[in-house]
Amino acid sequence: MESQLTVLVLLLSSLVLVLLLSSLVLISLILHPPQSRPSILDGTQIQLKSVTKNNYLSANNSGGSAILASQSSACGSETFKLWRITETKFQFRIFNWRFLGLDDQDNLVATSTSSCDSDSSHTFEIVRNDDDPNRIRIRAPNGSFVEVKQEGLVTADNSEDTNWGDDDPSIFLLTNVRQIQAGEFQVTNGYGPEKAPSAMMNHWNNFIVEDDFKFMSENGLNAVRIPVGWWIRFDQNPPHPFVGGSLQALDNAFSWAEEYNIKVIIDLHAAPGSQNGWEHSGTRDGTQSWGKTDDTIKETNAVIDFLTSRYANRTGLYAIELMNEPLAPGVTLDHLKKYYKVGYDTVRKYSDVYVIMSNRLLTRNPTELIRFASGFSGSVIDVHYYNMFSKVFEDMTVQQNINYIKKYRASTIKSLTVSNGPLIFIGEWVDEIDVSVASKDDYQRFGATQLEVYGKATFGWSYWTLKNVRNHWSLEWMIKNGYITL
């Protein structure tokens, strides 16, 4: 099986099909059209400055006690992550999973280490000024507004109306420090339970259709890497805020793939607890929790069991990717290996398809899984290459980017390729560079260089993505407009 399928991939390199997760940026744009006030989505990081004290609200001792208006400048202890409950109601989280609430004297404190969407005792309403939406009041669970006392203590005992002036101790200036990109959690929770099902179904029914598989087949592409989230296992009754329908979309993709002789790689892109803290891993607020306990291994393996058993007899199934982009050091190598062993055994209960093990991002040793994976027949190591997201590439010219691929990426792929070792998969790459002005010829040369180098990977490559609102990230657009020739 191994040699035959390897030849297949080498002859016609594969691509990534973004079907369930990453394309959701298209949906997120609907949440706040340019003419309207932007919605505050889950994971937004904010800082709050009292207009009367001219100080920022701060988590005293990094949480576990009172919130004070005590700092003239803002950093970590003055930054709050929002959990969206409704369009105007939120829960505020700080360090160590502590949530804002009130003590017995209605003082604002950060002592609770747990909360849920139905917990009204930790839910606050943000009331925004119509003329200046960053000028806000905060209504506490007791119905009163949060205000700053003369000594800097923060309480919730203001029931007065306001003229939004600088003399009102209940007025705060909101600074949006960071808005997490819209992953599926942010999108579905942003739409809410009434609108999210129809919005998601519209996406699944229209973004990727049968004609896309025909296009891939006609352009020499022989496989698709389809990212899914862990909640697909509960598709009939998914946990809040996710909605059902992604499983049918995956079923459709298999049928179309088999119709056009295209192989399918199922990629677990979002693991329970989030393996990297990025929006495409299903995180709510950027927290990376996967691997903190063995329970996450058990829960993640249950998803692999579900997916493999469901699709094991489909002729299109080519590989199962146990996890996308685990991030070091949050995910330790020992814990990851433990999961990969369990996940590999689970796949083998049902099928002899390839089992893909993704390298950790930010690891100092790109070969750290090679010896481990060599002990598993039909194993593949997935590495992702972008000439972006790092200061290394910021000042590079087009030619320097090309030279980097030829020298460093080619050398790394060679070091990963060992006798009797796992196959190597360049699971994500894109014909995009961090250069302010680049011509079509520049992109053609950069893309051709990557195709040449990544084509030497023993399992092939996949492009991120088939379709995207950004032209260079859309392989379909790049092919149709002559930027990439396969």
UniProtKB/TrEMBL annotation:
InterPro entries: Actin-crosslinking, DUF7910, Fascin, GH, Glyco_hydro_5. The chain crosses the membrane at residues 7-31. GO terms for cellular component: actin cytoskeleton; cytoplasm. Residues 40-176 form the DUF7910 domain. GO terms for biological process: actin filament bundle assembly; cell migration; establishment or maintenance of cell polarity; polysaccharide catabolic process. Residues 199-467 form the Glycoside hydrolase family domain. It comes from the Eukaryota. GO terms for molecular function: actin filament binding; hydrolase activity, hydrolyzing O-glycosyl compounds. Pfam families: Cellulase, DUF7910. Keywords: Glycosidase, Hydrolase, Membrane, Transmembrane, Transmembrane helix. The keyword Hydrolase applies. Belongs to the glycosyl hydrolase 5 (cellulase A) family. PANTHER family: CELLULASE CONTAINING PROTEIN, EXPRESSED, FASCIN. This is Mannan endo-1,4-beta-mannosidase. It comes from Dendrobium nobile (Orchid).
